[in-house]
Amino acid sequence: MLRRRHKTPKPGSAREATASREGGTPRTQRSRRRAREDAPVPPDLRIEPHQRGASPPQPEAPKPAAKASPKPHRPAEAKAPAAHKPRAGGIVLVTGFEPFGGDETNPSWDVCTRLAREIGGLRVEVCRVPCEFRRAIEVVAAAIEKHQPSIVLCLGLASGRTHMGVERVAINCDDARIPDNGGVQPIDQPVAAHGPPAYFATVPVKAMVAAMHEKGVPAEVSNTAGTFVCNHLMYGVLHFLAASASAARAGFIHVPRAEGMALSERAVASMSLATMARGVEAAIAAAHAHSEDIAAAGGTLD
Description:
The protein is of the alpha/beta class. The radius of gyration is 22 Å and the shape is globular. Helix 8 (205-214) crosses helix 10. The relative contact order is 0.16. The strands form 3 sheets. The protein has a 7-stranded mixed sheet, with helices on both faces. The protein has 2 domains: 2-33; 66-289, CATH 3.40.630.20. A hairpin with a 2-residue loop joins strand 2 and strand 3 (122-129). Helices cover 35% and strands 16% of the residues. The protein has helices at residues 2-6, 14-33, 62-68, 70-77, 79-84, 107-112, 135-147, 205-214, 229-243, 273-289, and strands spanning 91-97, 118-119, 122-129, 151-157, 164-167, 169-171, 198-200, 219-222, 249-255, 257-258, 270-271.
């Protein structure tokens, strides 16, 4: 537009040269902010807890991400959905974490390995997630790009809980009481520097709890996913799906410690892996069957 406006007066004038320079600056800034082609996540989710704020162009990063991120990845994956056709609603991606905090196992992943290969008409794909800030989101985002699921259900361990907790909300806050498996311990840092304060789960949490109860599984709606890697992943997955304009729905379930983990511990709540797997399968079937949640009390007094 600048060139067209000044083409007639003085094509080689200093004014046109200045306008050209001014027009070039934004393009240079945009190229600096462009999403890295080897990571399918929005730039503001590539978190460096000890180096936040070091990059001045970061505030506008989410805007290019929605456009730039799919370009390097979706064309490469376009053949996969055509090959096994259930892209519109035939796949549920279930994720579980690796062990952390000195434990030898993690029931969230152990449950994944016990799930049926098909639940409620959905093919089940599972993904083992590192218990690390940032990397957890990148691994699950890559799995979403690969499988194109209609539902993403992440599982995580919550020691001390007596029930399986279907999480209602994830907050934009990392506040780690202990370091993650990579030695990183962010304190009062945002998951996404310019993301919304919170995301609500897009799966029907109350319908899922009701279905779990029908199968005899202790379950409840939970109103806090914590501030460690579980909340980080739930928020990051919902943020990634929103930035990708994906129709996939996502949620998170916290599981108690497994019975085997409580053998040497006193007064520690636990649940069998078989019961947890039955609960997750019921939750998946309910999530697939309900496009909207049911009206049921699920709040707490505390």
